[in-house]
């Protein structure tokens, strides 16, 4: 009996994106599987943010194939990504500081009963969701501006989970956090992986990557420049790929070793 592995949740095959005469992404390959954290790495200008926008439907790809569970799909708008089960938490978090935690979670998707806001139901759902994720946000009615940076990051992640996504894109989730808050966010992402979510983690912090990610995909100048099994690859190998110190032969070797 031959074992046939299940297809990844999301796969990009030869994806390209151009702005005017500049091709920002060229022949990008990427796979995200359920229950795995994939780190997306690269220097500034490598194309990471553009790739996230392509996956989240903010800016559609010009060429290439995007597959969802092995079948080709079109992601032309954010609604397309959301309908598939892709949620994104951007670095700026996009929270309203004057609103409380409940108000931020349900902003734009409020629960109504008999034509009125059902505050009780929204608070109940918020409490249940945060209890599953963390106990780091004790007051659901506190204005978000009064929360710590780590608590605000937790609120932003919780909001993205309201629609029960299967893939979560996290753009630099620990960039502005201290050590303790970073640990809380990393623990949260670890729990999301245990629940079977696929996570794409955009990060410059190699400590976070080595502590959390299963695989790493490196972009350089808008192209793939290496795929790594984080458990076996050294930090020096990954950094060399980010900086361009590796050449084609080691890049192909890393690709094969990671099973991509």
Task: Write structural notes for this entry.
The protein is an alpha/beta fold and 260 residues long. It has helices spanning 48-56, 78-84, 101-105, 119-133, 149-160, 179-194, 206-212, 235-243, 248-257, and strands at 10-19, 22-32, 37-41, 63-68, 71-73, 86-89, 112-113, 116-117, 167-171, 198-202, 215-220, 223-229. The strands form three sheets. A six-stranded mixed sheet has the order 6-9-10-3-11-12, with helices on both faces. Strand 9 (167-171), helix 6 (179-194) and strand 10 form a beta-alpha-beta unit. Helix 5 runs parallel beside helix 6 (179-194). InterPro entries: AAA+_ATPase (IPR003593), ABC_carbohydrate_import_ATPase (IPR050107), ABC_transporter-like_ATP-bd (IPR003439), P-loop_NTPase (IPR027417). This is Sugar ABC transporter ATP-binding protein.
Strand order of the largest sheet: 6-9-10-3-11-12
Order of helices and strands: EEEHEEHEHEEHHEHEHEEHH
CATH topology of the domain at 10-85 and 165-257: Rossmann fold
The count of helical stretches stands at 9
Structural class, by secondary structure, is: alpha/beta
Radius of gyration from CA coordinates: 19 Å
Characterize the main sheet: 6 strands, mixed
Helix content: 25-40%
Between the first and last Cα atoms, what is the distance in angstroms?
A: 23 Å
The share of residues in extended strands comes to 25-35%
Overall average residue pLDDT: 89
What does the overall shape look like? globular
CATH superfamily of the domain at 10-85 and 165-257: P-loop containing nucleotide triphosphate hydrolases
Which CATH class of the domain at 10-85 and 165-257 is shown?
Alpha Beta
Q: Which architecture of the domain at 10-85 and 165-257 per CATH?
A: 3-Layer(aba) Sandwich
Low-pLDDT runs of 5+ residues are 248-258
Number of strands: 12
Domain ABC transporter: 10-246
Organism: Streptomyces cyaneochromogenes
GO molecular function, one term: ATP binding
InterPro entries: AAA+_ATPase (IPR003593), ABC_carbohydrate_import_ATPase (IPR050107), ABC_transporter-like_ATP-bd (IPR003439), P-loop_NTPase (IPR027417)
């Amino acid at each position: 009996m031959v074992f046939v592995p299940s297809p990844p949740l999301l796969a990009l095959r030869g994806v390209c994106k151009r702005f005017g005469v500049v091709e920002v992404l060229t022949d990008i390959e990427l796979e995200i599987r359920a229950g795995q954290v994939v780190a997306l790495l690269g220097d500034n200008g490598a194309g990471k943010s553009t790739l996230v926008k392509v996956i989240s439907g903010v800016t559609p790809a010009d060429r290439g194939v995007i597959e969802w569970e092995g079948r080709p799909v079109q992601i032309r708008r954010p609604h397309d990504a959301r309908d598939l089960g892709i949620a994104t938490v951007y670095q700026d978090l996009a929270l309203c500081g004057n609103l409380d935690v409940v108000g931020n979670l349900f902003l734009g998707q409020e629960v109504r009963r008999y034509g009125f806001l059902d505050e009780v139901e929204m608070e109940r759902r918020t409490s249940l969701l945060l209890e599953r994720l963390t106990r780091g946000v004790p007051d659901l009615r506190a204005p978000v501006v009064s929360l710590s940076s780590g608590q605000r990051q937790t609120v932003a992640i919780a909001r993205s989970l309201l629609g029960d996504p299967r893939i979560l894109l996290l753009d630099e989730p620990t960039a502005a956090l201290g050590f303790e808050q970073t640990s809380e966010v990393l623990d949260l992402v670890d729990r999301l992986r245990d629940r079977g979510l696929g996570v794409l983690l955009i990060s410059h912090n190699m400590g976070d990557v080595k502590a959390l990610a299963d695989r790493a995909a490196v972009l350089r100048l808008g192209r793939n420049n290496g795929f790594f099994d984080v458990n076996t690859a050294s930090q020096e190998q990954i950094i060399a790929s980010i900086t361009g110190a590796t050449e084609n032969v080691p890049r192909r070797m890393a690709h094969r070793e990671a099973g991509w």
